[in-house]
Amino acid sequence: MEVLGLDFRYDNGYKVFNNINIKVERGKFAAIVGPSGVGKSTLLRLFGAFLKPESGTVLLHGKPVLRPTPLISMVHQSIVTFPWMTAEENVMLSLKTKNIPKDECKELASKALEMVGLQGFENLYPKEMSGGMRQRVSVARSLAAEPKVLLMDEPFAHLDELTAEGLRQDIYNILFNPESPLECVIMVSHNLTEVVELSDTVFVLNNSPATVVGQIDIEMPRPRNSRDPVFDNYLDTLYRLLTKKKGGTR
Ligand SMILES: Nc1ncnc2c1ncn2[C@@H]1O[C@H](COP(=O)(O)OP(=O)(O)OP(=O)(O)O)[C@@H](O)[C@H]1O
């Protein structure tokens, strides 16, 4: 998946991006970081074709993505589950538009729930689940339609730290398990530790209009230990790119 020469401005004239080029290879977990308000969520929405660029293109398998497609799915920051539906019904919702027979929908939903570690909990309602379980349901819903690309906007932000840590430890294996047709993940996060823990590549956005000011490949075996000095070096590099202002200091 890639974006080429992307420019974007909102209807009120505010120019968010100037010539963004990002390529995420098959099998890779990519993260987008940047100061608050730089345009991270906007960029995810452009990746999913939920917004239209002023110029430039979004490509999947080399073909332009001109409108939202089930091949690209989004997990939102706020945990969106419908309280009156069971875990299984919440997941089946994402398959509604696909014209799939009910039995097959149930099978896909059950497979997705199993992938996120919720087998046996299909009939629970959201109020009977922890925050972490609800976020797993959101992830299962995004995976059920078997997308090629998963976009995640701060997926751990509304979880308490312990729950977030548990889900973070699982998420890479959930997403890139051998049965999953998923090809890549693009996550927005402001939590640099989380980013170094999970990503293969980090794209750093900065300035206004924003550009990509750095691309860092994280070459550490998984699971990654945040106490490893190499981990700290990556954090320092990202921090430096995030705090550097255009033109440097005089
Ligand atoms: N619908 C909109 N119309 C006009 N401007 C908008 C709109 N949505 C966002 N913006 C502006 O565009 C810029 C980028 O917003 P965006 O939410 O993408 O940033 P972000 O990097 O994700 O921020 P944060 O880290 O705080 O979540 C911000 O300055 C924001 O105020």
Automatic annotation (TrEMBL):
GO terms for molecular function: ATP binding; ATP hydrolysis activity. It comes from the Archaea. Gene3D superfamilies: P-loop containing nucleotide triphosphate hydrolases. Pfam families: ABC_tran. Residues 1-232 form the ABC transporter domain. InterPro entries: AAA+_ATPase, ABC_transporter-like_ATP-bd, ABC_transporter-like_CS, ABC_transporter_ATP-bind, P-loop_NTPase. Transmembrane segments: none annotated. Keywords: ATP-binding, Nucleotide-binding, Transport. PANTHER family: ALIPHATIC SULFONATES IMPORT ATP-BINDING PROTEIN SSUB (PTHR42788:SF13), TAURINE IMPORT ATP-BINDING PROTEIN-RELATED (PTHR42788). This is NitT family ABC transporter ATPase. It comes from Cuniculiplasma divulgatum.
